[in-house]
Amino acid sequence: MTSQLLEELRRRHLCHDSTDAATLGALLDEGSQTLYLGIDPTADSLHVGSLLGLVTLRRFLDAEHTPIALVGGATGMIGDPSGRSDERNLLDEATLEANLAGIASQIRSLLGSNIEVCNNKDWTEGLGILEFLRDVGKHVTVNQMAAKDSVRSRMENEAGISYTEFSYMLLQAYDFWWLHKHKGCVLQVGGSDQWGNITAGIDLIRKRNGSVAHGLTWPLLTRSDGQKFGKTAEGTIWISPERTIPFDFHQYFLRSDDRDVETLLAQLTLLPMTEIEAVMDEHAKAPEQRTAQRVLADEVTRFVHGQDNVRKANDAAQVIYGNAELTAALLESTRGIVGEATASQDDLEGEAALEGLLLKSGLCSSLSDARRQLSQSAVLVNNERVGPEISGEALTDKLLGKYLLLQRGKKERRLVVVE
User: Fold this and answer.
1) What is the CA angle 190-193-196, rounded to 5?
2) Which of the following CATH numbers is that of domain 3-218: 3.40.50.10160, 3.40.50.300, 3.40.50.620, 3.40.1390.20?
3) Which of 233, 257, 268, 346 has fewest C-beta within 10 Å?
């Protein structure tokens, strides 16, 4: 069962570094093992870059292992120097607590309410500095710490590294030791930039307990176009629907580059590799149909936001980008995605009803602007181009349920809800 898991991770490009693979595989073959993934609460939501770790924990969970998600209430107060060229801003306690609550809720939502979520503040808050230096610092040389890529690159940088961030490695090593001693944790997983921190914990467990522990990292997610994964011109793609609406989340994956989509399917979805290969074979026959991207967007959105939001995202895309025959249900799927305005039945009456709606919705700045746009055939109602001659009666006939979709030009839209 579990030796197949390591092979599965390799096939999915999820093995970058690991301790001895044969020994680790044999350990996993013995039965359920406890492992952990560390997450620093730098915001009150995870972003799509965090999905790689969470989906990997799900793979271990499905293979009947016991994953722990460690949210760093203590380490989050310091900041991990890995992958950074400058010092992190320190968070105040109230912000940190809010971030911890938000992230813990998301983890349980994605991995199930039974997933254990730990906070390393619970075992470090009462730890004295002298005790920490004696029990942890004594076992790690400065030479070892300075040799780690995350530290060395900062030391070579003009900005340098503070003693605070330099100490982060010791705190993460202590976390692994504590979880090993109190939870029986034998494996830490994380991104490749965490390898130095993970091996520090492995060494501490060996020196203090004489025990063998293991580490496994995956490659950091990157995009073939050189842009950072999970970033757009508008900003970060978040897991929280309040920060990134499910439609935009779905669209982000739908726009994946052909060069990236197979790897993303392998790493971020729970689809069997045989099914992914079949999807890619189908995609190769007609890449312009973006079959692989559609499967990717649906699967990742389903994992994060549920099937109902997959349906809404696809329905809304038909309204905004497709040529589907509109229905009330399709228009309703755009609520929260396009701008919205309310109107009464009286607003649909009279010869200048549409001009009034264009003004009321904010698509036009004045009635004269509305008339000008209509005379230039720049206005669509329910995806149909209309002119200045349209009457209120014709406008009422276009109502789908209680909705009208107004559009000015190629991109500006408003959903009018007639109460």
Assistant:
1) 90
2) 3.40.50.620
3) 233
